[in-house]
Amino acid sequence: MRRLGLVAMREMREGLRSKTFLITTAITILIVAAIVVVPRLLEGGADHYTVGLVGDGGAEIVDAAVRLGNANVEDGDEPAVEIETTTFATREEAIAALESGDVGVVLVDDSEVVVQTLGITGSGVTSLLQQAAAARALEQALEEHGEVAAVVIETLTSDPLEVSTPQGDDEAGGSERFLVAQAGMFLLYMAVLVYGSWILTGVTEEKSSRVVEVLLSAVHPWQLLGGKVLGIGTLGLAQFVITILVALGAIRYAGIEIPSLDPILIANLVLWFVLGFLVFAVLFGAAGSLASRTEDAQGVAMPMSMIAVAGLFLSFAVLEDPDGTLAVVGSLIPLTAPFVVPVRVAMDSIPGWQFILAVAIALVGIGLLVRVAGRIYSGALLRIGTRTKLREAWRGADQ
Amino acid sequence: MIVNLTRPMLVFEDLHKSYGDIRALDGCSFQVAPGRMLGFLGPNGAGKTTAMRTVFGLVRPDSGRVLWNGDPVEKETASRFGYMPEQRGLYPKMRIRDMLVYVGRLHGMSNTAAGNSADLWLERLGLTERALDRVEALSHGNQQRVQLAAALVHDPDVMLLDEPFSGLDPIAVDTMSEILRDAARLGKAVVFSSHQLDLVEDLCDDVAIIHKGRVVVEGDVKALKEASPYRRLEIDFDGEIGELTRSIDGIHDISSLDGHHRLTVDAGTDIRPFLARAQDSGHLRSFSYTAPSLSDLFREAVG
Lengths: 399, 303
Description:
The complex is a heterodimer.
Chain A: H1 2-17, H2 19-43, E1 47-54, H3 58-69, E2 81-88, H4 91-100, E3 105-108, E4 112-115, H5 123-141, H6 147-156, H7 171-208, H8 212-216, H9 221-253, H10 263-290, H11 294-320, H12 325-331, H13 337-346, H14 352-380, H15 390-396
Parallel strand pairs in A: 1-2, 1-3
Antiparallel strand pairs in A: 3-4
Chain B: E1 10-19, E2 22-32, E3 37-41, H1 48-55, E4 63-68, E5 71-72, H2 75-78, E6 81-84, H3 96-106, H4 111-124, H5 140-152, E7 158-161, H6 170-185, E8 189-193, H7 197-203, E9 206-211, E10 214-220, H8 221-227, E11 230-237, H9 241-245, E12 251-257, E13 260-266, H10 272-281, E14 284-290, H11 294-302
Parallel strand pairs in B: 3-8, 3-9, 6-7, 7-8
Antiparallel strand pairs in B: 1-2, 1-4, 4-5, 9-10, 11-13, 11-14, 12-13
Helix pairs in contact in B: 3-4, 3-5
């Protein structure tokens, strides 16, 4: 255990010292922060429009349009739509202002909307004005019925039907769980690819620089492999956690509300993140030992990357059919379980016994993988030259 | 083989190892005692590297074993040995002092002890000022020195060095020789393989010559030379050599070049008549009569 720890410590210390690690960490953090904060800064609160008015009836339509645009805004909150109006004496003056960009849209009487170009720009205010005009026409038609008009407007702007599930989740809560599970799967996929290939090149470098024979004269191959997985894994998880914390901080700074999440769901995601990471890290380590040069390493690791991609797609399929055969089988294979089980947990569709069985199989699977990978590792590490074939490595372990 | 259990000893006991049809080791047996330096000789592919790797569990023999003080060598035991593999290698990006401390700690040293030892070795090898440089920044020669330090940093009881002199310049050869001599003087068992037979003859107390996976000659260098059934007779002689050689029996081989003649004779031969006649002729310029060199023994053993 002491030597395993020494190997892990070296990986962490050298990793922290490497410029590549520090630079990628910094860049990742900046990108994550930028993705969250920048759109918020650019957004700048309400949609702001300028409308030029010519003739009669325009002012009422604009009032109605503002009311319509802000129909879903609670009292006391910032308005979602603001419209600034300028009145012109003639149509020509108004068109001139439109062309010079002083106003975005010109409303002539209560019957015509003139825009600079037909297209996406300005369509927001255009459609608002159209709806407002229609509502206004309806209001006028219903004028003699007085209160009925108010009822019609009220009804048109009321909340949609509520949707819920038999488990008692309302729609909002369910989609949050769904999103969190999906985000978790995507993070696992990213971590497997990024830190997996880190382990891969680390092992290949040991082999290509031939330092491995000195190391193996003092430590067992499984200690070298295990220490590497633990060291790089810890460093990678730390980088990952920092990135996520920065993202959460940025979200808070940007004023986006973070939904409160079920702690069991989060614990489940973390558990399967660690299990999934271990499975793939060990596999990538074994793959790295088969390559003699860094250039060969990615090719050797291709099957592993493919499995991770397949796992991610499987998690999408399981979202569609969380109780199907595919979902059950996927839960019981250590390579795919990390992508399948958390999704099923989030959707409340995995029986307890399957969950426990899946964890047990994954743990036993990792134990077996370490032994198998350790054997491949020890058989392949001292074979310099071309790519070592899997079978040669397996047999080579006896030599 | 008789194993003397009263003295500590590294014993290679009847090692066999085959790779498919190739027999890398075929009953390889020899031993080395503390305070002795053993030259491990053999043609390329004779099994030297395989035998050394066996000690560290890098190669698992089909049969036979390696013993230290009478006990089979396990990973724990081997961590008190020092190994310099034929294929040199260090972490290119690591600072050399960190590299040495790491190797020392893997061999069971405390952080402090490994640090002190690394500093001592860096000083001895003239690398103190480079302690914080990365391995890849060093010249080839200096990397070799760090490699040697990595084999010795944990003050091993046994040193196994695979071709430690290959690729060294004459100054570095002297440094390496001195370090190995000191180690043996301090009571360590030192084994190294080499093709530089003159060097081995100078340095080593013992030799083991391996051929086709089997040790064919083993023992004290001087004793082996004395025990040879042949002697070497070398003369510088300007006259007719053919007439001289008829003066004695037991001459096996003559090679001549520009008046320098090398003769192989039976060890028991009385060469005085030969010498007397050569002197009488007035053409003799120099004369030597010696036991065969290690090169001669080597050629005879593997030829």
